[in-house]
Amino acid sequence: MFGDIMGMMGKIKETQQKIEETKKRLDTVLVDEQSNDGLLKVTLTANRTIKSVDIDDSLLEDKEQLEDYLVLVLNKAIEKATAVNEAELGAVAKDGMPNIPGLDMFS
To answer: Which residues form a coiled coil (predicted)?
Structure first.
């Protein structure tokens, strides 16, 4: 039994390391989003760090419209990045968890 516990602890530590490696890799995964008319484009990492914002000059004439565009496009981009992030980290965590009867957190 003690050997089983040590084996599980080793597996958990290995999984934690894989999760950290995945988080670093997600800094290099880019998510692009744009407004329907293409006047505003943003790029984020899968860890939800904004990398670039491209604003068409026509949006600079109307502050309120630009703010609306930023809110909509950034929220869509963050939603996409979060989905990628959760899928990647969830897959690593699920694969690395020891099989403990009754503990079906990732099923």
So the answer is: 5-32
